[in-house]
Amino acid sequence: MDLKQLRIFLHVAETGSLSKAAQRLNVTQPALSRQIKMLEDDAGVPLFVRTGRGVILSEAGERMAPRARILAEEMERLKTDMTAFAGEISGEVRVGLPPSSGSVMAAPIVEKFHQKYPDVKLRITQLLSGAIHDNLLNGHLDIGILFEGNVSPVLRSERLWSEEMSFLIKPDDRWKGRTKIILEEALDEPFILPGPKHGLRDIIEKQAAKIDKPLKVVVEAESLMVHTELVCRGLGCTILPKTACFDHIAKGRLIALDLVKPKIERVPCLAWSKDYPLTRAAQAMADIIREEAASRFKLL
Fold first, then answer.
1. Most CB within 10 Å of its CB: which of 1, 183, 218, 282?
2. Are 149 and 285 found together in one domain?
3. DSSP count for the chain of H helices, then E strands
């Protein structure tokens, strides 16, 4: 029974599927199945029950899961602590930022990091939160910003700040003089949103479900630029923080109404994989992201 097998076990437990876990971990399904079989042989009991839709934890698996998670997290902390004894910071850092945060923070983060650590190769990628989430899980990103409530337990996360969401729509006479809107009225409009696996969509769907009101999505846009441009052209409305479309609002292409009853907020989080402990370079990037966030927002 080793740490690699325990981490594979945790991924299978979370996804409920050998094939999905194999895809996430970039291994073949037969190789993953062998690791699970070896772990079950060492444990002396089956850890999963096979079903028509995948796998679920057996009674023994349910007992193992929390202990395996503790062991994996402790090993991650140990590896991270040991990097503190390394020499100069070098190597590569791969960072994923969602468009709403990246449009504001990417340039100053890169500038500060490059000035302080010129020997580190830096790769900044702007992606929707669902893609950042997947890339953190499969090790293609070292660190990124996600949104609270849509973070896998296989990821470690740290809350940064809270941002209020606004109702955004193309100006017309209906909205003249308006500064606020209740969610129930907003949901009467056709929406333009990213796909279901993304954090923004998840937040709005959950809020709509709370008041038992359907969400009418007429276009799914996987790009913030396309997303906001379609709203500017009057094809639908959306809900975003004002910072995500400040230029459109300033130019009069969009109006932003405060959402009330309920007020909707989302919390950006710094996130990284428990399977891939942060290098010293990635830790340095995390510090700079925290510093930049603190200079712009009230940290939680």
1. 282
2. yes
3. 11, 15
Instruction: Label residue 111 by pLDDT band (50, 70, 90).
Output: very high
112 lies in the same domain as 48 = no
What are the tokens at 48?
A: 């999963």
**What CATH number does the domain containing 205 carry?**
3.40.190.290
Contact 211, 259 (CB under 8 A): no
Burial 19-38 (b: 16+ CB within 10 A, else e): eebbbbbeeeeeebbebbee
The pair of structure tokens assigned to 138 is 């499969």
Which residue in this structure is represented by tokens 């910071």?
A: 89
Residue 24 belongs to domain with CATH number: 1.10.10.10
Q: What are the tens digits of pLDDT across the range 84-109?
A: 566 667 788 999 999 888 888 999 99
Helix (H, G, I), strand (E, B) or coil at 135: helix
Q: Say what the pTM is.
A: 0.71
Helix (H, G, I), strand (E, B) or coil at 262: coil
